[in-house]
Amino acid sequence: FNDFDRIFELVKKQLGLSATTYDLFGHSAGGHILHRMALFQHNSYANRIVASNASFYTLPNYEDTYPFGLKNTSLNEEILKTTFAKKLIVFLGEKDNETETRGIFLRSKTADKQGLHRLARGIYFFESAKEKANELVVEFNWQLKVIPNVGHDQENMGKAAGNLLYNK
Length: 168
Fold this sequence. Notes:
With about 170 residues, this protein is an alpha/beta fold. Helix content is about 40%, strand content about 15%.
């Protein structure tokens, strides 16, 4: 996860930019990477992290082992509290559901506990995080955005992310 900040610093230096933060969008496998970055990378320059249509999530619990949960990771509840203050946007396609056939979708007993399609799993992840933040009595800055009439489609999810992040 440190590579994102390292690349940001290199680009800033090369282009002579004064930016202090950057935004990220990742779809499918990119959504896997970015929601985990939000969980595990504590001191990043990332401002808004848009994690789109992952097939399963690392839940903020200590019952499930990584990559399905935080059991046996270095992420403790004190660090987890700062995670919920980040600007993570769980970005889901409304039609990335049981009828969607694009992309690779993991089916297993552990993954299926999160839901039987990407939309259900993304909502489950968001709600699980919200419950954990409430349990820890901390600020919860995450957002859930469901994009109407879009399935597992990186182009349309990318356009929606661009509109969310940069259209005023």
